[in-house]
TrEMBL record:
The keyword Nucleotide-binding applies. It is an enzyme of class 6 (ligase). This is Biotin-protein ligase. Residues 1-173 form the BPL/LPL catalytic domain. It comes from Thermococcus litoralis (strain ATCC 51850 / DSM 5473 / JCM 8560 / NS-C). The lineage of its organism: Archaea, Methanobacteriati, Methanobacteriota, Thermococci, Thermococcales. PROSITE patterns: BPL_LPL_CATALYTIC. Keywords: ATP-binding, Ligase, Nucleotide-binding. GO terms for cellular component: cytoplasm. Its EC number is 6.3.4.15.
Amino acid sequence: KKVIYFQEIDSTNEYAKRIALDEEEGTIIVADTQKSGYGRKFRMWASPRGGLWMSVILKPKTTPDHIVKIVFLGAIAVVETLERFGIDARIKWPNDVLVNEKKICGILAEGSFSEKEVYYIVLGVGLNVNNPIPEELLSTSTSISNVLGVQIPIEEIFRTITERLEYWYKEFLRGNDEKILQKWREKALLNRGVKVIREEGEIRGKALDIDDLGALILELEDGRKEKILYGDVSLR
Ligand code: BTN
């Protein structure tokens, strides 16, 4: 496995996208700090020293409709890593990892693909480890050191995440989708109210389950069910 390390970079996802076509699958970019880290909807992602900011280049021979499962692999790997360090974490569809209802990790998959083929996917993971959480975010965000009250060497976290990610990516390549979806369900926050914000407007409902491709099945207030695809929503 190749790891490219930077003390400082604009964004590990941006860097990974720049080299992805020429780089072999599995290469990891990791940085101590990012100057312009970003999350979904290009929201800025604060990335000071002490956090884990990494991106993995993947080139699965598959179609783009399977990409959401790759996001799931990231979330599962992070939850399992946190478990190893004694932290009980849950996944909020599609890509957040929460501890005590507070966000500890965000995952951002970006890719290049046609209708039939995926050229590459960059799986970005931003995990709050020993980095300070800004005052104004303390009610909604947390870190490993906040939860445990001690600092964990970031290399140990990095090693565990990459090991779990590799395990789950192999399952994905073997076509063991059901195993991935089952693990995801086991660790997810389901059966609770969510607010989905789409371009057409906002809808409320209860997150019931996911389907075979990872779309969220939402029960609306009038009892109707609707599928929400990854990509066109933000959840509150
Ligand atoms: C989100 O919750 O919106 C996703 C946040 C993803 C942040 C990570 S940090 C490493 C990688 N590089 C980036 O610029 N973003 C991702």
